[in-house]
Automatic annotation (TrEMBL):
Coiled coil (UniProt feature): none
PROSITE patterns: ABC_TRANSPORTER_2 (PS50893)
Domain of life: Bacteria
Keywords per UniProt: ATP-binding, Nucleotide-binding, Transport
Domain ABC transporter, first and last residues per copy: 38-274
Protein name: ATP-binding cassette domain-containing protein
GO molecular function, one term: ATP binding
Length: 294
């Protein structure tokens, strides 16, 4: 990419990011008319003798934000790791962008990895390198772009997540919310078709986490990507999701559009919603301590 192209792209991104979101949720029919970008077919998984995923079937449609919800230990991260090829792939179980993850040759897998961006809950930044170097890592690993181009691409994505000017800092100098945004910048540095985020707002206070929700919505619009977000934050899920998948102890309880989840008569789904109203009465500092687990 030339720097003129990069600049044009930067302007396009920034304009799109600053625009008010006007997107309406697609109807069920509209959504189902779109191509599938993620397909999971009868996926089971066990750690040793302990089964953690039971007959998972789901799809994600182009341009959709799918939020995977469920209590701690319900299998959300394990499912996400299957989606991004970090678990031993089994033929016919997971397809991304129409490619069967279980039967790809190494070069095909690499090609696919260039099209997906991933930010994990604890996959924070490397503390020994600057923020910009962290963002450039996927480019170093997966492309043979020159240093200058990598710098431009990294700075472009830092701009997108509102961190322009912070690239030269070490991660320790950033706040929790900034670290999350920087890891999202790293996840989108390759302009992925698919973005996977594991608990992007965990450990953040409600205001910062709501800003992160806005960022995810704007990224979807500006970059025309599909997003899979793992979360246990129901307010965030209601705000950003087109559909929500509810996992309960390794089983899918529901895959529905937000309104349907809100009005669900399923008792277990309702329990999940009610947990939110209990938490809403909790002191924010106490809530944060609970989220961060300390
Ligand atoms: N590497 C592992 N070895 C054995 N069990 C694991 C491992 N990772 C996760 N588990 C177990 O699998 C279940 C699902 O975990 P996980 O996918 O991390 O859930 P979630 O992300 O929903 O909290 C949990 O019971 C967890 O203890
Ligand atoms: Mg998890």
């Amino acid at each position: 990419m030339t720097s003129a192209e990069s600049q044009r792209e930067a302007l396009h991104h920034i304009a799109a990011l600053r625009a008010e979101s006007t997107a309406q949720r697609p109807t069920e029919t509209e959504l189902m008319a779109r191509p599938k970008v993620v397909e999971v077919d009868h996926l089971d998984f066990s750690f040793g003798s302990r089964q953690v995923l039971y007959d998972i079937n789901l799809d994600v449609r182009a341009g959709e934000i799918m939020v995977i919800m469920g209590g701690s230990g319900s299998g959300k991260t394990t499912l996400l790791r299957h989606l991004v090829g970090l678990m031993p792939p089994q033929p016919g179980k997971v397809k991304l962008l129409n490619k069967d993850m279980g039967s790809l040759k190494p070069n095909e897998l690499l090609d696919l990895k260039r099209k997906i961006g991933v930010a994990f809950q604890f996959g924070a930044l490397f503390s020994s390198m600057t923020v910009a170097e962290n963002v450039k890592l996927p480019l170093r690993e997966l492309t043979d772009l020159g240093e200058k181009t990598m710098d431009i691409m990294a700075n472009l994505k830092l701009e997108v997540v509102n961190l322009s000017g912070f690239g030269g800092l070490m991660p320790a100098a950033l706040s929790g919310g900034m670290v999350k945004r920087a890891s999202i910048a790293r996840a989108i540095v390759m302009d992925p078709k698919l973005l996977f985020l594991d608990e992007p707002s965990s450990g953040l206070d409600p205001v910062v986490s709501s800003a992160l929700d806005d960022l995810i919505l704007k990224l979807r619009e500006a970059m025309d990507i599909s997003v899979v977000v793992v979360s246990h934050d129901i307010d965030s899920a209601f705000k950003i999701a087109d559909r929500i998948t509810v996992l309960d102890q390794g089983h899918i309880l529901a895959i529905e559009r937000v309104e349907a989840i809100r009005n669900s008569t399923n008792e277990r789904v309702q329990n999940l919603l009610n947990r939110r109203s209990v938490e809403a009465e909790v002191d924010p500092a106490e809530y944060l301590r609970r989220l961060t687990g300390d």
